[in-house]
User: Fold this.
Amino acid sequence: MTVLIIAAVVAVALAAGALLYTRMGRGGGTRSLRRRFGPEYERTLARHDGDDAAADRELRDRVERYGGLKPLPLEPKVREEYTAQWTTLQERFVDAPRQAVADADQLLARIAETRGFPGADRYEEQTAALSVHHPHHVEGFREARRTAHSEAASTEELREAMLHARALFEELTDGRAAASPARQGQRAPKDTAMRRPNVLKPKGSGI
Assistant:
């Protein structure tokens, strides 16, 4: 009888451990997910109306699907070409801010696809994968998409979208597979042009 009781206790313990692993092992528990995703966790939580369990499930699913993805490095020549294209977009913003943001959105999608993320024609999947590897700046991608397709977006909103998209651009082209945990919480440095007050201000905007 004693042996049977011990066996039952062990079986229950193993089952509990398996359940705990299933809930926390694949991407971690709430605390681990908050630490890993940062602002992306809060956005996901808000989308689920504060339901922690639903937010955790979604983010664990993303980690399970895309956490093993190994972003490909960019060849130096390709990186230079993308950098030149981005510089052109910044200059174009002065005269055509909405088109510049729309082009920035498309450029980010192309770079992500080049790095091995889901293709540009699979926006939701691509964004989900980017959120796992670049959680602190993926919102810049979404913001560029939203503002470029919003007739109501103001010039200032377009400018902010371009700046936030720039942060993701810098991470995607920095030559490393993905941002390290130590770097993900840092704001991406802006180049000299981005710091100058008249850059990204369209002509005649009055701002």
The two ends are 83 Å apart (CA to CA). The first helix runs from residue 2 to 25. Confidence is low (pLDDT under 50) at residues 15-27, 177-199, 202-207.
